[in-house]
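We both want to read discrete structure tokens more fluently, so let's practise on a single case. Once you have written the record down, we can walk along the chain together.
***
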Amino acid sequence: MRWIILFILVMLTTIGCAANCQNVQQQFDTCQATLKDQDFIIKKQESDIRQKNQKIEEQQETIKKKDADIAELNRQLNISTNEKGRYDERIKDIASSVREYIKQQMRDNRNFLTSIALEDFIGNELIEREHTGEGNMLVINVEHPVPSGGQINGIGGYFTGSADIVIKLLRPVGNDYLVIYNKEIKVEATAPGKQYIDLDSPFIVKKGDVIAYYFPGIVNAPYDSEIGTNTYTKMRSDKYPHGERVAAEDIWHADQAKRKYSLNYYGIFYTRVDSE
């Protein structure tokens, strides 16, 4: 009886081990399949990494080539910039020399024309006068309009000191005037005396045009009172820039005393002043 019971127990144990072994085998097979899948995934990822690394290496090589190209372009740009700077400097030197040459030619021409009386001087005598030293004044020389078409080459004045002047050419428009030209000049004077200031570009004029002088600071051109005209105005800032209209009532001031300033202008005109 004991042998039968022992046999039964052995059989039961054997059956249990077989079942457990079967489960272990199934789990083992499952693990092997999982490892194969993971190995495949790892190999695929390694392949992707190798491809990406290759692309990175290719891109790095491209970047190196681009860097070399950029360095070469920068080198060429630096050369071009240096050459352009020298070229611009040369152009400036040439332009400056040409301007100075033209100015000297204008001065020589004025001296030549003046000496043989071909250039007309229109306005008042450039002499020392009684009064000077006011400031912020617009003086309009309506007493001496342009005699005919031609060009104004510059202005003359007797100056007691340095002064800033804005030269204006006024053209009649009905009863009013229109500012056609506006030119700022600077007078340098260490002692009282007569000066002629050439314009960089002549004023092309018509008969009846009028010259005006605006002094934004001290008026160092002297004047005599009770003689001349009353066409001067106290003006703290320039109210009449280029293109501005000047009304007739803003020019004539009947309630002011007449004045004659030591100012004139000169140029070449189709009709000579002394022939009229």
Summary: The mean pLDDT is 82. The first strand starts at residue 120 and ends at 123. The CA atoms of residues 102 and 108 lie 10 Å apart.
